[in-house]
Amino acid sequence: MNIATRVTEKITIGHSACPHDCPSTCALDIEIHADGRIGRVRGAADNSYTAGVICAKVARYAERLYHPDRLMHPYRRKGAKGAGHWQQIEWSDALDEIANAFVRAEARHGTEAVWPYFYAGTMGWVQRDSIERLRHAKKYSGFFDSICVNPAWGGVMVGTGALRGVDPREMAKSDCVVIWGTNAVSTQVNVMTHAIRARRESGAKIVVVDIYDNPTMKQADMKLILKPGTDAALACAAMHIAFRDGHADRDYMARYADDPAGLEAHLRSRTPEWAADITGLSVDEIEDFARLIGITRKTYFRLGYGMSRSRNGAVSMHAALCLPTVLGSWQYEGGGGFHTNSGIFGMNNGLLTGAGFADPNVRQLDQSELGRILTGDTRALRNGPPVTAMLIQNTNPANILPEQRLVKRGFMRDELFVAVHEQFMTETADIADIVLPATMFVEHDDIYRGGGQSHIMLGPKLVEPPADVRTNLFVIEELAKRLGVADMPGFGLTERQHIDEILSGDGLPDYDALLNDKWFDRQPDFDTAHYIKGFGHADGRFRFKPDWKGQRGSVRPPDTIGLMGPVDELPEFPDFCPVIELADADHPYRLATPPARNFLNSTFSETRTSREKEGRPEVMLSRVDAAREAVADGDVITMGNVRGSLRIHAKVSDAVKPGVLIAEGLWPNKAHLDGEGINILTGSDNVAPFGGVGLHDNRVWLRK
Question: pTM for this structure?
Answer without folding.
Answer: 0.96
